[in-house]
Amino acid sequence: MITFISNLQTQIRYSSDVLTNILSREHSRILEPLLSNTVVHLGDGTTFARAWGDSVSNLPTYFGLNKDDKSLLADFGNGLGVSDVDGQLSHCEMYKQLFSDRLSQMKQDNDKKVKLYRCLGVFSGMALALLII
After folding, report:
1. I need a labelling partner for 17 at 20 to 30 A (CA). Which of 23, 75, 79, 112 fits?
2. How deeply is 55 buried, as exposed, middle or buried, from its count of CB atoms within 10 A (0-12, 13-18, 19+)?
3. How far apart are CA 84 and CA 87, in angstroms?
């Protein structure tokens, strides 16, 4: 997501193109369902905020996004296309930082859980060995 936002910032800064065209040119393999659904909804005459929000809420479960992640992603889309170029760049920068913070938090949570599961595995193995003996 952070890479996508960086690419979006570059496109907004230098292309002077409409957000729909920028999203349709963006080739993010990971975000493909989100981007393609948003562009399809925009083609139907839906507003950008609604198209983005609907696409975020319809993301498949294999994306592994929880409720907070989807909310952050939906809020990011709600702020796109509503201000001038400098406002859009500031918006992208702010959400890039928010997504970076979220990623750091998830890495810390993962590290804690890995230690817990390792200990649980070792102690379960020792308990099983004691039961067998």
Report:
1. 75
2. buried
3. 5
